[in-house]
Amino acid sequence: MSTYVYGITHSGLPQLPAGLAGVGNPPRAVRVVRAGGVAAVVSDCPPGLRPTRRDLFAHQRVLSAAAGATVLPLRFGSVAPDDRSVRALLTARSDALREALDTVAGRVEFTVRGMHDEETLLRGIVARDEEVRRLNAAVRADGGGTYADKLRLGKLLDAAVAAQAARDTATVEEALAPLAARHRGGPGADGWILTMAFLVDRDRAAAFLTAAQRLQEDMPHLDLAVNGPLPPYGFAGSAGFAGLFGAAAQRPLATV
């Protein structure tokens, strides 16, 4: 049976809670595989593993149970052929893994995404830009303005929104990056104008959240979504162990 890997930690991981159960139905017992001065928190991988809510929660529960140690969390569905393969990978990558553990030790991740409040943003653009204000008035008048007016207004608005998005991204980065050990990201997608991740020392987490709240108050045209503190998924992977293990074959998310 293949081995499901939840995360990687130091070999001196404190003892896990007795009876800790992982993914699967029935849940598989969790164990620790050690090699090369590091360790992997694992269980047997059930056949036909899917990202059900039950198993996604089980994955997170196991990582939370190991929270007394520094843990490099793996994404759901990370699987090795067997325990022997896990030991071989831990041994071969032990130096990189210890370095990655040092990178995230005592730190948590916050993700920050921003989306424009279109009504507030456009109202501000119209108020600031005389040509936009004139064209907007012409288009909204009874005659509806000319085709050239509408085309020009659309181009000006698109440019103004893009410029504001760039300024907002820079403002958020400048305000929050000094509170983080590392950060990454920038322009967003799917309607978000920015998507960033910050690796923050635990003792600075409250200050980080306060700074994010202050940003929201100072930028009413921007809706900020702050998620955290979280396990350092993004920074752990970028620190050198992403891709160590394969992904289980997964069907679409199912309910339980």
How do the helices and strands line up, and which of them pair or pack?
Blueprint: E1 3-10, E2 30-35, E3 38-44, H1 53-65, E4 71-73, E5 78-80, H2 83-92, H3 94-104, E6 107-116, H4 118-128, H5 130-140, H6 147-176, E7 182-187, E8 194-201, H7 205-218, E9 222-230, H8 233-241, E10 246-247
Helix pairs in contact: 3-8, 4-5, 5-6
Describe, in plain words, how this protein is organized in 3D.
The chain is α+β, with helices and mostly antiparallel strands and 256 residues long. It has 2 domains: 116 residues, no CATH class; 125 residues, Alpha-Beta Plaits (2-Layer Sandwich). 43% of the residues lie in helices and 24% in strands. It contains 8 helices and 10 strands. Strands 1, 2, 3, 4, 5 and 10 form a 6-stranded antiparallel sheet that branches. A 4-stranded antiparallel sheet has the order 7-8-6-9, sandwiched between helices. Helix 3 runs antiparallel to helix 8, helix 4 packs across helix 5 and helix 5 packs across helix 6.
Q: How is this structure best summarized?
A:
The chain is α+β, with helices and mostly antiparallel strands.
Give a quick set of tags describing it.
Alpha-Beta Plaits, 256 residues, disordered C terminus, alpha+beta, six-stranded antiparallel sheet, 2 domains, 10 strands, 43% helix
How many domains, as an integer?
A: 2
Radius of gyration, taken over Cα atoms and rounded to an integer in Å: 24 Å
Q: Main β-sheet, in a few words?
A: 6 strands, antiparallel
Bin the strand percentage: 15-25%
From N to C, what is the helix and strand string? EEEHEEHHEHHHEEHEHE
Note poorly predicted spans. Answer: 249-256
**Could you name the CATH class of the largest domain?**
Alpha Beta
H/I helix tally: 8
What is the straight-line distance between the termini?
24 Å
Shape: elongated
Strand-pairing-aware structural class: alpha+beta
**What name is given to the CATH topology of the largest domain?**
Alpha-Beta Plaits
Q: What is the level-2 CATH architecture name of the largest domain? A: 2-Layer Sandwich
The average pLDDT is 86
The helix fraction, in percent, is 40-55%
